[in-house]
């Protein structure tokens, strides 16, 4: 092309337009224009309003958003205690297909486990993390165990390597945690329940990520909830412990997991990228939104207020999650976390909490890639 030749000019306007009749004038070119006749309404309703009555719904929703919308809000349940005679066994993975998921979700076992998670959420409703609560010896023991695991991280520094994810020193930490797991379980078990260690250990060791893939995600977090549920079925922790299980135990677990994620650069397992809630966690958003229900001043949109985040993140799990995400992700919040940005437009925390419970059921507990790693034994029966 000749140096003096002018580059091709763009068209006068970037918006395509069509002239239909001389009734009005086009603002772009001055020509006559009119709107085309709209198409007739479709008989195939793909949009379902939020208040759509939950009767005669079509089966097999075509997308996740519809599935979440149609899912009833999960309800709390009292944990059914495990009755003797006991037959403890090493739990195994069973789920391999969507049919298995359907079978699981129609079982009383699953309803009781999900009901336990909802009960934990309700126990922390409208409470700050520092609020006084019943702290049993079992809760103290669990917190001490997690403290030891945090100390292990300090004793095992990351190996020098250039890879973005997956520091191999994590495997050393994981091996050490696994080798001590049985002794940790025995600290919680009375003599008549010592045999339960064989069943509890796999749930516990699967709660902190995968040592071969060096990753962590909501499936591992669900295993931690399942481990707590096993303790509840064995009556090692009771209903009066639930608030402390969130405000003391789960908070300490989250501290450990964030330390592991940052120290050993754990890869997010099965992350949805920007369209996920968070690369690693789900439960702290459920518990955290419950904490903020009926709060006088803080609304879902308050996550955009830096003063609120700075002053209250230590007391509210939801806010601490937002602070952590802003710390590890750069750029505009609406771009790297559009899902959380959308949720901030919901009018109140009660709606946020019920929506997240439904989302957890659909996005985590109904997904084969996540639940294929879930374990079943005599405490959580298939």
TrEMBL record:
Gene3D superfamilies linked to this entry: 1.20.120.1150
Q: Where in the cell is it found?
A: Cytoplasm
Family indicated by similarity:
Belongs to the PTPA-type PPIase family.
User: What protein name does the entry list?
Assistant: Serine/threonine-protein phosphatase 2A activator
PANTHER family given in the database record: SERINE/THREONINE-PROTEIN PHOSPHATASE 2A REGULATORY SUBUNIT B, SERINE_THREONINE-PROTEIN PHOSPHATASE 2A ACTIVATOR
Q: What is its main location?
A: cytoplasm
Give me the Gene Ontology terms describing cellular component: cytoplasm; nucleus; protein phosphatase type 2A complex
Please list the GO terms describing molecular function.
peptidyl-prolyl cis-trans isomerase activity; protein tyrosine phosphatase activator activity
- What processes does the entry annotate via GO biological process terms? mitotic spindle organization
| Annotated catalysed reactions | [protein]-peptidylproline (omega=180) = [protein]-peptidylproline (omega=0)
Q: Give the enzyme class.
A: isomerase
Highest taxon in the source lineage:
Eukaryota
Cytoplasm found in the keyword field:
yes
Key word RNA-binding present in the record?
Answer: no
One Pfam entry for this protein is PTPA
This protein's species is: Coffea arabica (Arabian coffee)
The entry's function note states: PPIases accelerate the folding of proteins. It catalyzes the cis-trans isomerization of proline imidic peptide bonds in oligopeptides.
């Amino acid at each position: 092309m000749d140096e003096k030749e002018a580059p091709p000019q763009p068209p006068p306007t970037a918006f395509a337009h069509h002239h239909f009749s001389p009734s009005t004038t086009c603002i772009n070119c001055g020509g006559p224009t009119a709107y085309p006749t709209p198409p007739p309404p479709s008989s195939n309703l793909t949009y379902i309003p939020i208040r759509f009555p939950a009767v005669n719904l079509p089966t097999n929703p075509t997308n996740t958003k519809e599935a979440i919308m149609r899912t009833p809000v999960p309800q709390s349940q009292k944990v059914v205690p495990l009755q003797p005679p006991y037959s403890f066994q090493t739990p195994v993975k069973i789920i391999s297909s969507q049919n298995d998921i359907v079978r699981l979700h129609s079982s009383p076992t699953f309803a009781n486990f999900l009901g336990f998670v909802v009960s934990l959420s309700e126990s922390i409703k409208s409470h700050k993390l520092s609020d006084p609560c019943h702290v049993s010896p079992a809760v103290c023991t669990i917190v001490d165990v997690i403290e030891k695991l945090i100390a292990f991280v300090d004793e095992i520094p990351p190996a020098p390597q250039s890879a973005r994810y997956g520091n191999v020193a994590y495997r050393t930490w994981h091996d050490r945690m696994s080798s001590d797991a049985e002794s940790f379980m025995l600290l919680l078990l009375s003599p008549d329940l010592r045999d339960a260690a064989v069943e509890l250990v796999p749930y516990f060791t699967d709660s902190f990520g995968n040592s071969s893939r060096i990753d962590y995600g909501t499936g591992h977090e669900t295993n931690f909830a399942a481990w707590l549920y096993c303790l509840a079925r064995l009556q090692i922790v009771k209903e009066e412990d639930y608030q402390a299980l969130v405000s003391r135990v789960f908070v300490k677990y989250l501290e450990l997991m964030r330390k592991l994620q940052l120290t050993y650069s754990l890869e997010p397992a099965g992350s949805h990228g920007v369209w996920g809630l968070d690369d690693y966690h789900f439960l702290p958003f459920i518990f955290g939104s419950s904490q903020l229900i009926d709060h006088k001043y803080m609304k879902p949109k308050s996550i955009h207020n830096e003063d609120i985040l700075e002053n209250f993140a230590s007391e509210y799990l939801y806010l601490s999650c937002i602070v952590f995400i802003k710390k590890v992700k750069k750029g505009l919040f609406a771009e790297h976390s559009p899902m959380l940005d959308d949720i901030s437009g919901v009018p109140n925390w009660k709606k946020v909490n019920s929506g997240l419970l439904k989302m957890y059921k659909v996005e985590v507990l109904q997904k084969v890639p996540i639940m294929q790693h879930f374990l079943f034994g005599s405490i959580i029966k298939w």
